[in-house]
Amino acid sequence: MNNVNNDNKTPSTDAVICQISASGVARITLNRPEIHNAFDDVLIGDLTTKLETLNADPAVRVVILTGAGKSFSAGADLNWMKRMAGYDHAENLADSRGLARLMKTLNFCSKPTIGLVNGAAFGGGVGLAACCDIVIASDRASFCLSEVKLGLIPAVISPYVVEAIGISQARRYFLSAERFDAATAQAIGLVHEVVSSDDLTARGDAMAKLLLANGPNAMTAAKSLISAVANKPIDDDVIDDTANRIAHQRASAEGREGVSAFLEKRPAKWSEK
After folding, report:
1. Which of 170, 76, 60, 85 is nearest to 121 (CA)?
2. pTM
3. 3-class secondary-structure state, position 180
4. Please, what is the average pLDDT of the chain?
């Protein structure tokens, strides 16, 4: 696989490292610990490309995203911000669309995604967490939507963050730019679980193992289902669409295998890998 390191023992100086296990779990690590894994256009482009490559790889079944060092991601790199300060509107628009593409790629990845927030997640780091299907945070993690302190707004990440935490909480944290801890992040819906920092990696691996026991195509279909029914009125169109979706899944090779395995009291073929 291009731009992906399959050897877990091989060190890398890349801004984004990707390692794939034999079971199909891809672990992406933001690898700029000296600047708290801050974003710049290079990291954004590299992370987007890696996610797109993983999404297209049938051997990849789960994607884990975390950060190297003490932070998950501190948002924008200061040097990148200095360059942006001199951009005109067209240049800023092109730059912002790059970040928008990253968030969209992660949010709509067809594979299950697990965010392991190992430390500070500021600005775009909060956006990355909001785009993951399952978010597990260290008890040392902290979060901040700090854009308004800089005279900016969290525009590109806002659809995903608002979807995760709701309008009421977004009103508070978008405007206050206050820092909040992992327990608060869990209470407002940004994080699903909080564990000790020593247990974060193991908990992520355990969650990945749970996901590997499920039908790969069924999980992709389940993600599509959520998007199809979320915030929709329960009308005849939605009812008919959901009926068609389960009929399709039941008739699929994976659906038939899953039901047969259950009835025959044996592991499904996908769980034997």
Report:
1. 76
2. 0.92
3. strand
4. 92
> In degrees, to the nearest 5, what angle opens at C-alpha 151 toward C-alphas 148 and 153?
50
Question: Considering 52, 91, 147, 193, which one is annotated as catalytic?
Answer: 147
Q: Is the pLDDT of residue 2 over 50?
A: no
The full set of domains in the chain, from first to last, is 16-212 (3.90.226.10), 216-272 (1.10.12.10)
98-132 burial, b if ≥16 CB within 10 A, otherwise e? ebbbbbbbbbebbbbbbbbbbbbbbbbbbbbbbbb
What is the 8-class DSSP label of residue 39? B
pLDDT in tens, 162-192: 999 999 999 999 999 999 999 999 999 999 9
**Structure letter (DSSP) for residue 115:** E
Task: Looking at 155-235, list the stretches that DSSP marks H as alpha helix, in order from N- to C-terminal side.
Answer: 158-176, 182-187, 200-212, 216-229
Residue 147 known to be catalytic: yes
